[in-house]
Amino acid sequence: MHEQETLNFQSEVKQLLKLMIHSMYSNKEIFLRELISNASDAAEKLRFKALSNPDLNCSNLRVRIEINKDKRVLIISDNGIGMKREEVVENLGTIAKSGTKSFIASLGSDNTKNNQLIGQFGVGFYSAFIVADKVSVRTRSEESPENMGVLWESSGEGDYTISNIEKIDRGTEIILHLREKEDIFLDVWHLRGIINKYSEHISLPVEIQTSHEDDDAVVWEKINKAQALWTRNKSDITEEEYKEFYKNLSHDNSDPLIWSHNRVEGKQEYTSLLYVPTQAPWDMWNRDHKHGLKLYVQRVFIMDDAEQFMPNYLRFIKGIIDSNDLPLNISREILQSNHITQTLRLALIKRSLQMLGAMAKNHKEKYQTFWQQFGRVLKEGPAEDRSNAVNISKLLRFSSTSYPSSVQTVSLDDYVTRMKKEQEKIYFIAADSYLAAKNSPYLEMFHKKSIEVLLLFDRIDEWMMNHLTEFEGKKFQSVSTADAELNKLADVTSEVQKQTEQSLEPFITRVKNLLGDRVKGVSLTHRLFDTPAIVTTDVNDISTQMAKLLSSTGQETPTVKYLFEMNPEHELVKRAAETKNEANFVEWIELFLAQALFAATGTLEDPNQFIQRINRMLLKSSESIENTIIVNK
After folding, report:
1. Among 18, 469, 517, 564, which has the highest number of CB atoms less than 10 A from its own CB?
2. Which secondary structure element, helix H or strand E, spans residue 578, and what is its range?
3. Which residues lie across from 140 on neighbouring strands?
4. Distance between CA atoms of 370 and 318, rounded to whole angstroms?
């Protein structure tokens, strides 16, 4: 060893190392990913050099990991391009110095189109100090004189030593002298797990030192597959390989419903492989549910649950995004504001919706499976993503009055094609359950006119419809909302309607005086046949289902003020209108209102009062019948 010298780092290493270790890396095992990435980078550099220098030997490039438990040392070595003395000073003497970036710049743009360099050497290398209190680097460049190498050593405290050494082989060895309580990184199986997790798809073979049980002979065992599946040509990947990759990626034993493998080149280069699962996870609706995308940068695993690339309404999508443009040391905080992230997010949303659209069109049975599992999640889309509301709305499925089943199979395209010629709106009703929606009195006129109505009974439906205002120029209309247009659908002429209102005006006034401000208004309706009365909400007021939704989340909601609409053709309403006895009149009107509120909300503030009122009226009715029988006798 000769020509040893001690040099100061070119930046305030203590502060920067502390900041990096505690801010840039969330878990200690990341260091192994970084060092393996740098080794892969060194191999890629050598391959580029070989393009212009065929004498360079690029065969059998690999990364090796060696464990010395006695000395508590971990060694990561490669046989890549290596470094000269000045390169060591330049690359290891400055925090965040990117040797790779400088190398690419030196090659020129024409030679970098297909490169697979992944390093940001400076920052990645210094992650070694997360687990080591001393780091030694032994390296020899392919351009160095024979057996001439360089030794770099530092404790990360502000300076480092560098000296010339004898080194026979080309490449780099990084020797980590582990800190106390970091012995877990001397365990072979723990290291295998880290390599499988982070570096499974590095294109360079990663080998770990093991020994035969019989003779203790050293064996180098390859850990990773050494090729990222998503980097291969789609035509070379079998369906079974796609399925197996999904299972390894998601820890899901079921096959995926569908997947989309896409490579984009140009202004931005990235590869995406997206999957739609067959079954929703048990924690899909938990607040801490993790998104399913993994982020890679140049085949190097960066993070799980990369929620920055997918909106919540697509959180069921599993897969990977591998970017050539993001830095290797990217953090979640930086991702949030990175313009590349935003571009990738838009592209992945588009790709996901196209994938779902293709499944809906070409694999209807599979799409129905998807909808049953994830339909309620997708319903969050119109509110969350206005820019894609049209495409999302085409993917929605509903139950309707045209089918005798609660299974949601009707698309908005289906509905529009079946609309009546004179029909201008898409009608729907929201209720607590399928049966409550299907048998609602609000549908009586629509049944008679054979007008299809969408039946909405998922909790999220009313909230969704507040943001889904129209489809292909057709506005949505709730049948439980007050609307003069709905009365026009009834087979009643304006003249008959006017005469009815005039003749029953005293009755309406009497009802208004009775109910006062308990209702927002009282009117007649001609869209009922078997029901005496309903309550409706004004178009600008909060709806019943929305009030329930907000209340279920613990939010304060305004009191819903209803419009009370009565059916003038119903026999009970006629009887109430003719009643002179005030007590009997009150009983009738209160009964109609309670029935209407019960049908609209599914509950009553005082159900016992409602029951007692019905019992009193039944007793009066039975007495009346008995008296009639006696008189006739």
Report:
1. 564
2. helix 571-578
3. 171
4. 14
Query: Between vectors from CA 220 to CA 218 and to CA 224, what angle results, nearest 5°?
Result: 160
Residues 489, 480: Cα–Cα separation, whole Å = 15
The predicted-structure confidence for 33-91, as pLDDT tens digits, reads as follows: 889 988 888 887 888 788 778 888 888 899 999 999 999 999 999 999 999 999 988 88
Domain 229-361 CATH class label: alpha beta
pLDDT of 100 reads: 47
Torsion of CA 31, 33, 39, 44, to 10 degrees: -140
Which residue, among 7, 8, 36, 21, has the nearest Cα to 129 in the 3D structure?
Answer: 21
Strand order in the sheet with 206-211: 2-8, 159-166, 148-154, 132-140, 171-178, 73-78, 63-68, 206-211, 218-222
Quick one: which of 580, 587, 586 has its CA closest to 617?
A: 587
Buried b (16+ CB within 10 A) or exposed e, 267-289: eeebbbbbbbbbbbbeeeeeeeb
Inform me whether the pLDDT recorded for 113 exceeds 50: no
> Domains of the chain: which residue ranges?
13-222, 229-361, 491-630
Dihedrals phi, psi of 489, to nearest 5 degrees: -75, -20
625's tokens: 């019948």
Q: Which fold has domain 13-222?
A: Heat Shock Protein 90 (3.30.565)
Q: Return d(Cα 313, Cα 379) in angstroms, integer.
A: 7
- Which amino acid would we find at residue 40? S
Amino acid in position 464 = M
326 in helix, strand or coil?
coil
Residues 6+ apart with CB under 8 A from 151: 1, 136, 137, 138, 161, 162, 163, 164, 165
Q: Provide the terminal-to-terminal Cα distance of the chain, rounded to the nearest Å.
A: 131
Q: Hey, what are 68's tokens?
A: 């010395």
Tokens linked to 135: 């780091």
Question: Kind of pairing, strands 171-178 and 206-211?
Answer: unpaired
Binding residues for ATP are: 34, 38, 78, 83, 91, 97-99, 120-125, 172, 332
Among the listed ranges 242-256, 306-320, 579-593, which one has the minimum average pLDDT value?
Answer: 242-256
529, two tokens: 């046949």
Residues 118/300, Cβ–Cβ less than 8 Å: yes
Using DSSP bridges, classify how beta strands 206-211 and 63-68 pair: parallel, antiparallel or unpaired: parallel
> Is the confidence at residue 153, as pLDDT, over 90?
yes
The Cα–Cα gap between 484 and 375 comes to: 33
User: Annotated binding residues, as ranges?
Assistant: 34, 38, 78, 83, 91, 97-99, 120-125, 172, 332
pLDDT of residue 15: 61
pLDDT at res. 102: 56
Q: What is the pLDDT of residue 1?
A: 45
Give the torsion sign (CA, 309, 357, 461, 521).
positive
Q: What is the pLDDT of residue 544?
A: 78
Inter-residue contact 549 to 526 (CB < 8 Å)? no
d(CA 25, CA 35): 14
* Residue 345 C-alpha from the chain's centroid: 11
Residues 78 and 172: beta-carbon distance below 8 Å: yes
Compute the distance between CA of residue 613 and CA of residue 616 in angstroms, rounded to an integer: 5
Task: Specify the pTM.
Answer: 0.74
**pLDDT range class, residue 120, cuts 50, 70, 90:** very low
